[in-house]
Amino acid sequence: MVSSKSSEFTKYYNEDIETMDRDRIETLQLDRLRWQVKRCYESSEFYRERFDRIGLKPGDIESLDDLLKIPPVTKQELRDEQISHPPFGRYVVAPQKDWRELHPSTGTTGVPVNTIWTEKDVENITQWTIRTLWNFGVRPGDIVQNGFSYGLWVAGMSSHYAAKAMGCFVLPIGASMAERQVDYLVNPGSTVLVSTPSFALYIAEKMNQRGIDPSDISLRIGGFGGEAGAEILPTREKIQTRLGIEAYDYFGLAEIGPTCGSECEEKAGLHWVEDHILVEIIDPDTNKRCDSGKTGVLVLTHLTKEATPMLRYWTDDLARLTTEKCVCGRTHARSEGGILGRADDMIIYKGTNFYPGQVEKVIRSFEELGDEFRIRLSTDEKTGIDVITVIAEYKTKEVDNVEFKNKVKRAFRDELEVTPELDLVEPGTLERTMFKAKRVEDERVKAD
To answer: How far is the CA of 438 from the CAs of 50, 89, 145, 441, 447, in angstroms?
Structure first.
């Protein structure tokens, strides 16, 4: 078993890049941004039309602040572009002879968006993904159990490429076969697990059912992404306790990376790969950049992507940003607290806004409850008033009583500032997921 503290390996994968000062980072970003904007304008009708519509030319981008002149790109715009110009739209910049891989988004919120990788894209993504793994302690010689989905969805492939290139022994099991996942934790004894947080908890549940204690396996660290969870303290603590590991947040999305941000061992926020991706936090009301530490929408720009570069991709994820040097010594910008939610996941109830992650925080803070939950939005047939019900599993029937329910409801009130209905169901009632969990069920009657 490899120790992340081993003196055999350096603290950084590429110290020169990861610790460069702010001026040097921004100089590099500007050079690459100018290159990217020029090639997008010259080779993509999609981008050229967007620029010409507002009278913007590549030469107008003279500073990083000038990036704000470029209109953000939304996923729906990319979908519409693909429909109008099938199959890949006109935002593909590299010539077809250079295409090597196709990777669409998951399509969990609509029609998947296709992105393409050139050979150079594969190389760059592999290298920066090595850095994201190295951040939280993966080292050559580790046995990496890859619980991210393989195939067209992109996280499994990029993590596989990176772990292999780093010198790890990779188990490409993917987001499937929870029982087999447990088998491999026992033999050959994986030391690293990457998966969604939900799948990690499902694996831990299966492990417990088989009477396997965390001390019986060699697993020591895990990177968990694809959904919120790893930065939600009760969820992180459950993963760590049940698997006997240190759990780290891991972020990516198909249109950009896919894995382009991860926590270091300090757990002080997601470190971004700023030499490849320019990160902004934008106020959705003013379309201006938020001050350091303020919450806004995460907007990402490719600096080195060849095939399908995104100029100011509007992720709809909510985050904060700081450029303060981390305790670990890395200087690239961080998002403390990770991804705080999605703007399109916001639930409005009785005039109050909240996010599914806040419900998760409450549910997983009670040991009497299981890990799975659902948020059901419905309309009362008699009154026409919207009703929100949180459905959760109890571990023992004894807690399905008014006193315990009121205790949970008070916790909801403190966290959400509203009190949803609570429905407790038997253990095993709610479906477990090996992929991205979709826990909001909207059954409300839509107005005509």
So the answer is: 34, 28, 24, 8, 24
Domains and CATH numbers, the chain: 1-342 (3.40.50.12780), 346-442 (3.30.300.30)
pLDDT for the residue numbered 1: 39
What does the pLDDT look like over 170-192, one tens digit per residue? Answer: 999 998 899 999 999 999 999 99
- Is residue 319 within 8 Å of residue 296, measured between CB atoms? yes
The per-type count for the chain, helices as H runs and strands as E runs, is 11, 20
| Cα 47 to Cα 91: distance, rounded to the nearest angstrom | 7
pLDDT digits (tens, 9 = 90+) for 193-233: 999 998 999 999 999 999 999 999 999 999 999 887 789 99
For the record, the structure tokens of 177 come out as: 């076969």
* 101 three-state secondary structure: strand
- What CA–CA distance (Å, rounded) separates 105 from 151? 12
**CB-side neighbour CA atoms (13 Å) of 184:** 22
Give residue-wise pLDDT tens across range 342-377. 887 888 887 788 888 899 999 999 999 999 999 999
With a CB cutoff of 8 Å and minimum separation 6, the contacts of 113 are 75, 78, 79, 82, 104, 105, 254, 255
C-alpha closest to that of 269 among 212, 322, 195, 210: 322
Of 193, 247, 198, nearest to 371 by C-alpha is 198
CB of 150 within 8 A of CB of 172? yes
Element (H, E) at 79: helix 75-84
Q: At 337, which amino acid appears?
A: G
Q: What is the pLDDT of residues 81-103, one digit of tens each?
A: 999 999 999 999 999 999 999 99
Query: Does residue 293 contact residue 145 with C-beta atoms inside 8 Å?
Result: no
Distance set, CA 423 to CA 385, 404, 419 (Å): 18, 12, 13
Pairing outcome for strands 347-349 and 169-171: unpaired
Which tokens sit at 291?
């001050």
Tell me which of 446 and 167 has the higher pLDDT.
167
Cis peptide before 87 (omega within 30 of 0): yes
